[in-house]
Specification:
Helix content of chain A: 25-40%
CATH class of the largest domain in chain A: Alpha Beta
Distance between the termini of chain B: 67 Å
Number of helices of chain B: 22
CATH topology of the largest domain in chain B: Rossmann fold
CATH class of the largest domain in chain B: Alpha Beta
Largest sheet of chain B: 5 strands, mixed
Strand content of chain A: 5-15%
Distance between the termini of chain A: 42 Å
CATH topology of the largest domain in chain A: Rossmann fold
CATH architecture of the largest domain in chain B: 3-Layer(aba) Sandwich
Helix content of chain B: 25-40%
Radius of gyration of chain A: 25 Å
Number of domains of chain A: 3
Number of strands of chain A: 17
Structural class of chain A: alpha/beta
Oligomer: heterodimer
Radius of gyration of chain B: 26 Å
CATH superfamily of the largest domain in chain B: NADH-ubiquinone oxidoreductase 51kDa subunit
Largest interface: A-B, 43 and 40 residues
C-alpha cells in the first residue's frame, strides 16, 4: 500500500465535509460521522471479508459501486452512503440472502439478537420474492461446546476469518464452489473430529444463529426442580464485567454482588466464586514454578494451563511442549472438585447430591468439564454444567428478576472469597501478574511493593518482561489469541531443536484475544475498545480489594490448614492437578 | 535436400493421433530423422473434422486423405514431391505471415508463428527473429521507453477488460518496493475459447519473450505463468521453452550479459474458471482457495504475496515482442478508434468453417461470419452472435455490420471478452442459450460473495422456470432485480457480468422471451417442455418412418394407416419431426 498511515484527508460524505485519517475505511469514516452503512459480513473486530455486498456506496467518478468495508478513504473522495439506488441494491441483495435462510426466527437462539433479522426489519422486508432454497443438513452438536447449524449460515466468512487468521486453528473452511459453496469443518467432518479447540470465537462473531454455544440454560432450570439436589454455583472473573452488556450497561460494569443475589433468588444453596479458585491456582501453579525455578525439578519455561481451548490446542498442535505445561487444573475445576469434597465434608452433604454449575465466559469450559477422568477427582463429575455469560443473560431474562434492582450480596464460604489477584485472571496478563505477586513472596520472603505489573497488561499480542526477584531475573511472556501463541510456541520449538537456552521462565497463555474477558461465550460485538473496558472493570475490582495477593486469601489459607496441608501435597495432586496427552489434530 | 518439417493436426488428442504416430514410425524405420521432422500441432490455421498435414518450407497442406493414403503421402515427402489430390484448396483462414491479406481479411500478429515453426525449437524461433525484441529492449531502450512504446501503441488487455496495458505496467513500475511480480494469465476458460491454447502450444517462446520484456520494463525479477492443467501440451512446451531460454541466457541471471535478471516459473490451475480473475489467480498461486479479493488495493499496489504485481493474458503478451520490434506507430496504425491491433477469435457455433481467426480491430461480424467462416451452416438464417462468453451478450442481426471493437461492443450491451464467438442461427432459442451460460456461471462462481452465489442460482431457477413453461410476467421484474444486485454488488467481474447474456437477450429478443412466458411457446422447439409434436391424420400415410426413429417407442399405428403419438411418453426430441417426409408431424 502506498498510503502512509494517519494522514488527514478531506472527504465529503453525503454532501458534508469531513477531515479523517487516511487509514480509515469508508465504513469507519462514516461511523465517525454517525452514519451507519449497513453490513452483514464486516465485524468491527475483524478484517473485512467483503462477502455480503450490502455495504456498497457511491464514490463520485467511479463507474461501479464501492464496498465501504474494505476501501480506504482517499483525498477528495465524494461519497454517497444512502440514496434510492443504494437502497434498491441493498434490498435486492438482502432479499437474495434471505431467500437461502430458513425462517426459523421464533425458535432460533439468536431471536431478537440477530444481525440479519435486524437488517431485514430496518429494510422493511415484508416478503421474499424468490424460492426459499435452504442448504445444509443436520446440526452439528458433536463438540457439546459450540453448535454449528449450516442451514442458518449466510456465508459471511467471519468465523473462517477468526478461526484461520486470528486463532490459526483452521477448523473451519470454505468448501465447494458456486451456489454450493459453504462453510464447514475442514475436511467436511464433524467439529469434534476436526482441529476445533472449542474456543467459541466463531460463535461470538457469527451474525446469525449458525454457530452458537451448546446451550444448557434449560437443563439448569429443569435440574433446579429436583429438590433432593444441593445446587451450588461459581462465577468466573470475566463474567462480572461483561454480563451488564446484556442489560444495556457499559462494558466493564461490575456486577459481582448482583449475580450472587440472582443465583440465591432462583434457589442456589451456595454461591462460590471462581476467583477463589484463581487464588488457589496461583498457590499451586506458583509453587510449581518455584519447584522448577528454584529447586530445578521439571522443565522451564512453565506454561499456564487455565485455558481449556489452549490445552486442547497444545495437545493437538504442540504435544512436544507438554512437559512445559503446569499440571494445575483450571480454577473452575478446582472449585468444582473442592465443592464435592472439602465443602461437602464440612457441611455434611452427600457430594453425590451437589449440583455444581459454573458460569464462564467460555464455550471450551463446556468441553473441559468432561475432558479426562481427572475431571472426576471428587468421585463425581466435579463441575456438572458450565454455561456461558450469554446463557446467563437469557436465564436472568427468563427468571423475571430485574438484575439491576438487586442489592449486592456476598458469596458463601468456604469457596467464595477472593483477592484482587484472583479477579484479574479474566484479562490477558492477569494470571501472570497474580503469579508474580505471589512468586515474589515465595522466592524472596518479602511482599512486592508495587503490585501493578504494567508490563504484562494491555492488548499487545505477545508481551515480554523481566521481573527482578531479589537479584533473580525471571523472564516472562504473555500471549493471547492462538495466532500470537503460535509465535511463542515456535520460539520454544526452535530453541529445543537448536539446543539454544530457553528465552523464558514462565509463560501465560489465553486462547482468546484479550483473555477471558473476550472469551467465546461473552456478549456479542466485541472490539478492542470493549476488551479494554472489560479489562478495566477487572483491574478496578482488583484495585478496590483489601487483599490483592493470592497467598493472603484467608479461605485459601484455611483450606490448606484444614484439608490440603500444603501446595503440591498428595491431596492437592489428586484433586487439583491433571495430566496431558498428545492428541491427533484430526480424529478422522 | 532441405529438411522437411511436417506438422500434423488431428482432432483426436495429439498423443494418440494415428497420423502422427504413423509418420514418426516411418521416419524412424527409414532412419530419416536428419531430413524429416514430424511435429504434433494443435493449430495449423485450419480447423477441420479430419487430420491435416502441413509440410514446411514449401507450405503444402494436405487434407481429405484417409489412413491408407498415408504411405503415399510419406513417400511424397521423402521424394520432395506433391500429391495434388490431397492438397487443400485455398482457404481464407490461411493467411501469409504478418501481412494483411486483403482477400482473407486476416492479419496475424499474435498467431504470426503459430503453425509455421516447431514450437519446441528455440533455434527456429530465434531464426525467425525471435528474442530480437528482448535484445532491443534491454540494449537500446530504458524501461520507461519500453513502457512509453507499449502505451503509445494503444494495446489493451485482451483478456476481456480492455485496460491499457502500458498504463498497467506504468502503475506497477511506479509502486515502491524492490520485489514485484509479472504474471501471465493462461487460465483460458470461456466455453468454446481456445485462442490462448493455440499460442501456448504453437509459439510458447513469444510468451517467454513478451514476459521478459514486461519484467524488464516494470522491474521484476520473477514471473509466473498460471496455466490450466487441462492444457498438458501447453505445459510441456512452456516448460521446454523456459528451460531452453535459460540455456541460451535469455532467462535467468544477467540476460544476454546485461544487468537484467529474470526467472520464470509455471503454476498449474486446477480448472476453476474464476481463477482467471486476477485476484483469484494470485490467491491460487499463493496456494490458497481461488477466491477474488476486494479492490482496491489493486494488484499493482498489493498483488501476489502483497507485492506490486501485474497480469496480462496470453494474447496480450504475444503482442509485446512485435510492438517492441516494430514500434508503437506500426501497431497503432492497425485497428480502429481506441481499439488498436488485432483480435483473435475462436469462432464456433453454426458456421460452416469454425476455427481460429485473427482480424484487425474494426472488422465486422459479417466479414467474420460470412467471409472468413463460410457463412451459416446449412445456409440457414443468421440469428445472433454471442461475444464475451458467459460475461458478454448476444448481438442480433441488426448489428451484423457493426465494427468489432471494445467501445462498440460495450455500447450494445456486450463485451469483447477473451475472444470466444458463438454464432447462432434461427434454430437456437435465446432463452435456452441464456440457461446454458447461466448454468456455466453458477457452476463456476467461487461462492464467496452473496450477490453472485445466490443471485446466479435464483436467476437460473427463474430462467429454467420460463423454459419449463411456468414463467410469469412478474418474473421479468425479479430477473431485473437480481441482475441489479449482481451487477452492482458482486465482488468481482464474474458476478458483475453473469446477468449480461440474460439482459441483452431480454432486450434484443424480448418478443421471444415473452412468447415463452405468455404463450408458453418456444419457436425453435429447443425448450422441450413448451413443445408438443402431433401427427395430422390427413397427411400421415403410415410409412412408419417416425415410429422407427422414435427412441422411446411412443408412436404407434398400423402400416399405411395414420399413426399417433402417445404424449404421455413423448420426450420431445424432435426425431419424428425430422424423419417425416410428408410434413405430417407438426410442432406446436
Amino acid at each position: 500500500m502506498t498510503q502512509t498511515k494517519d494522514i488527514k484527508v478531506n472527504i465529503k460524505i453525503n454532501n458534508k465535509d469531513y477531515s479523517v485519517s487516511s487509514s480509515l475505511t469508508i465504513l469507519e469514516a462514516a461511523k465517525l460521522a454517525h452514519i451507519k452503512i449497513p453490513t452483514l459480513c464486516k465485524h468491527e473486530d475483524l478484517p473485512p471479508t467483503a462477502n455480503c455486498g450490502i455495504c456498497v456506496v457511491k464514490v463520485k467518478n467511479n463507474r461501479k459501486l464501492i464496498r465501504a468495508c474494505c476501501t480506504l478513504v482517499e483525498k477528495g473522495m465524494d461519497i454517497t452512503t444512502h440514496d434510492g439506488e443504494l437502497y434498491e441494491v441493498r434490498k435486492n441483495v438482502l432479499e437474495l440472502i434471505l431467500s437461502t435462510h430458513p425462517f426459523l426466527c421464533l425458535t432460533c437462539l439468536r431471536n431478537g439478537n440477530c444481525e440479519l433479522q435486524k437488517l431485514a426489519e430496518e429494510f422493511g422486508i415484508r416478503e421474499v420474492p424468490y424460492n426459499n432454497i435452504v442448504k445444509g443438513g443436520k446440526t452439528d452438536t458433536s463438540t457439546k461446546a459450540v453448535v454449528f447449524d449450516a442451514q442458518k449460515c449466510i456465508g459471511c466468512g467471519r468465523c473462517v476469518e477468526v478461526c484461520q487468521e486470528i486463532q490459526q486453528v483452521h477448523a473451519l473452511e470454505f468448501l465447494d464452489r458456486g451456489f454450493n459453496a459453504r462453510i464447514a469443518p475442514a475436511g467436511d467432518i464433524q467439529l469434534a473430529d476436526s482441529p476445533c479447540i472449542k474456543c467459541g470465537q466463531c460463535s461470538a462473531h457469527c451474525p446469525v444463529g449458525a454457530i452458537v454455544e451448546f446451550s444448557q440454560a434449560t437443563q439448569v432450570w429443569l435440574t433446579l426442580r429436583d429438590e433432593t439436589l444441593h445446587p451450588v454455583v461459581q462465577i468466573a472473573p470475566a463474567v462480572r464485567v461483561a454480563l451488564g452488556e446484556g442489560f444495556g450497561l457499559e462494558p466493564g460494569a461490575l456486577l459481582t454482588g448482583q449475580i450472587y443475589a440472582f443465583f440465591r433468588r432462583i434457589g442456589f444453596k451456595a454461591i462460590f466464586d471462581t476467583n477463589f479458585g484463581a487464588d488457589l491456582t496461583i498457590m499451586e501453579e506458583g509453587s510449581e514454578l518455584i519447584e522448577r525455578l528454584v529447586h530445578g525439578k521439571g522443565t522451564l519455561p512453565l506454561i499456564t494451563s487455565c485455558c481449556p481451548a489452549w490445552v486442547d490446542f497444545l495437545e493437538k498442535y504442540y504435544p512436544d511442549l507438554i512437559e512445559h505445561f503446569s499440571t494445575a487444573k483450571s480454577p473452575h475445576e478446582m472449585v468444582g472438585a473442592l465443592s464435592k469434597t472439602y465443602y461437602a465434608e464440612k457441611m455434611g452433604i452427600d457430594p453425590g447430591k451437589i449440583f455444581m454449575l459454573s458460569v464462564m465466559p467460555c464455550t471450551a469450559k463446556k468441553f473441559e468439564i468432561a475432558r479426562t477422568a481427572d475431571m472426576h477427582s471428587s468421585g463425581y463429575q466435579d463441575v456438572d454444567v458450565s454455561i456461558t455469560t450469554r446463557e446467563l443473560v437469557r436465564m436472568i431474562k427468563t427468571s423475571g428478576v430485574n438484575l439491576l434492582d438487586l442489592e449486592d450480596e456476598k458469596a458463601d464460604s468456604v469457596l467464595g472469597s477472593y483477592t484482587g489477584a484472583g479477579t484479574i485472571f479474566g484479562a490477558t496478563g492477569g494470571v501472570m501478574e497474580a503469579a508474580i505477586r505471589t512468586a515474589y513472596f515465595l522466592v524472596t520472603g518479602k511482599e512486592l511493593e508495587n503490585l501493578d505489573v504494567e508490563d504484562v497488561r494491555g492488548l499487545k499480542g505477545v508481551k515480554r518482561a523481566t521481573v527482578d526477584m531479589n537479584g533473580k531475573k525471571i523472564r516472562v511472556a504473555v500471549a493471547h489469541g492462538i495466532g500470537n501463541v503460535r509465535e511463542v510456541c515456535e520460539e520454544l520449538r526452535e530453541c529445543k531443536a537448536s539446543g539454544k537456552p530457553m528465552p523464558y521462565d514462565f509463560i501465560e497463555v489465553m486462547a482468546c484475544e484479550g483473555g477471558c474477558i473476550a472469551g467465546g461465550g461473552q456478549p456479542y460485538q466485541v472490539t478492542n475498545k470493549i476488551r479494554t473496558m472489560r479489562s478495566k472493570g477487572l483491574y478496578n475490582d482488583d484495585g478496590k480489594c483489601e487483599l490483592r495477593c493470592s497467598h493472603h486469601n484467608k479461605e485459601v489459607q484455611q483450606l490448606y490448614k484444614e484439608f490440603l496441608d500444603k501446595p503440591l501435597s498428595d491431596k492437592s495432586h489428586h484433586l487439583l492437578h491433571t495430566k496431558y496427552i498428545p492428541r491427533p489434530i484430526y480424529y478422522k | 535436400m532441405i529438411k522437411q518439417h511436417v506438422f500434423v493436426w488431428d482432432p483426436t488428442p495429439s498423443n494418440s493421433s494415428a497420423v502422427y504416430n504413423y509418420l514418426v514410425k516411418k521416419v524412424n524405420e527409414r532412419d530419416l530423422g536428419e531430413s524429416i521432422e514430424v511435429y504434433r500441432s494443435t493449430y495449423i490455421g485450419l480447423t477441420s473434422g479430419t487430420p491435416i498435414i502441413r509440410i514446411l518450407p514449401k507450405n503444402i497442406i494436405y487434407t481429405k486423405f484417409e489412413q491408407e493414403d498415408l504411405g503415399e503421402i510419406f513417400e511424397s515427402i521423402v521424394s520432395d514431391e506433391v500429391v495434388d489430390r490431397f492438397i487443400c484448396e485455398y482457404d481464407a483462414k490461411l493467411a501469409p505471415v504478418s501481412e494483411r491479406d486483403k482477400q482473407s481479411k486476416q492479419f496475424k500478429i499474435v498467431l504470426r508463428n503459430v503453425g509455421y515453426l516447431d514450437p519446441e525449437s528455440i533455434e527456429e524461433y530465434i531464426s525467425r527473429g525471435g528474442y530480437k525484441a528482448l535484445e532491443k529492449a534491454i540494449f537500446e531502450m530504458d524501461p520507461d521507453r519500453v513502457i512509453k512504446e507499449i502505451k503509445d501503441s494503444g494495446l489493451r488487455g485482451r483478456g476481456g477488460g480492455g485496460f491499457s496495458t502500458g498504463l498497467k505496467w506504468e502503475l506497477t513500475r511506479k509502486e515502491p518496493g524492490a520485489e514485484k511480480f509479472v504474471i501471465c494469465n493462461a487460465d483460458e476458460g470461456d466455453p468454446g475459447a481456445y485462442m490462448d491454447r493455440a499460442v501456448l502450444e504453437g509459439d510458447p517462446h513469444t510468451i517467454v519473450e513478451g514476459m521478459a520484456i514486461g519484467a524488464y520494463a516494470v522491474g521484476c525479477k520473477e514471473g509466473f505463468i498460471y496455466v490450466r492443467a487441462e492444457y498438458p501440451l501447453a505445459i510441456e512446451r512452456l516448460e521446454k521453452a523456459i528451460s531452453d531460454a535459460k540455456k541460451y541466457g535469455l532467462l535467468g541471471d544477467n540476460i544476454l550479459g546485461s544487468e537484467f535478471s529474470f526467472n520464470l516459473e509455471l503454476r498449474w490451475g486446477a480448472g476453476a474458471f474464476v481463477c482467471g480473475e486476477e485476484t483469484a489467480l494470485m490467491a491460487s498461486i499463493e496456494g490458497k482457495r481461488g477466491n477474488p479479493k476486494p479492490r482496491p488495493p489493486f494488484p499493482s499496489q498489493s498483488g501476489l504475496w502483497k507485492k506490486p504485481s501485474f497480469i496480462n493474458n496470453v494474447e496480450t503478451w504475444a503482442n509485446i515482442p512485435p510492438i517492441v520490434e516494430k514500434g508503437s506507430g506500426w501497431f497503432s496504425s492497425i485497428g480502429v478508434g481506441r481499439s488498436k491491433g488485432t483480435k483473435v477469435f475462436a469462432v464456433t457455433g453454426k458456421v460452416k468453417d469454425p476455427g481460429l481467426i485473427e482480424v484487425p480491430m474494426g472488422t465486422t461480424f459479417r466479414e467474420i461470419v460470412y467471409d472468413l467462416c463460410g457463412g451459416i451452416l446449412d445456409n440457414k438464417k443468421f440469428k445472433a452472435v454471442q461475444t464475451g462468453g458467459p460475461s458478454g451478450g448476444v448481438i442480433p442481426e441488426k448489428f451484423i455490420d457493426m465494427s468489432v471493437d471494445y467501445e462498440t461492443l460495450m455500447s450494445i450491451g456486450s463485451m469483447m471478452g477473451s475472444g470466444g464467438l458463438i454464432v447462432m442461427d434461427q434454430s437456437d432459442c435465446m432463452v435456452d442459450v441464456n440457461k446454458f451460460y447461466l448454468q456455466f456461471s453458477v457452476d463456476e462462481s467461487c461462492g464467496k460473495c452473496a450477490p453472485c452465489r445466490i443471485g446466479g442460482k435464483q436467476l437460473l431457477d427463474l430462467i429454467s422456470k420460463i423454459t419449463d413453461g411456468k414463467g410469469d410476467k412478474k418474473d421479468i421484474q425479479k430477473i431485473k432485480n437480481i441482475s441489479n444486485a449482481m451487477q452492482k454488488a458482486s465482488l468481482c467481474a464474474l458476478g458483475q457480468t453473469t446477468p449480461n447474456p440474460v439482459l441483452s437477450a431480454m432486450h434484443y429478443f424480448e418478443e421471444e422471451y415473452m412468447e415463452h412466458i405468455s404463450d408458453k411457446k418456444c419457436r425453435t422447439g429447443k425448450c422441450s417442455n413448451l413443445v408438443q409434436y402431433m401427427i395430422i391424420p390427413e397427411k400421415c400415410i403410415g410409412c412408419t418412418a417416425c415410429a422407427l426413429k422414435c427412441p422411446v417407442k411412443c408412436i404407434s399405428g398400423e402400416k399405411k394407416k395414420p399413426h399417433i403419438i402417445d404424449q404421455k411418453f413423448c420426450i420431445k426430441c424432435g426425431e419424428c419431426f425430422n424423419a417425416c417426409k410428408f410434413n405430417a408431424i407438426v410442432r406446436g
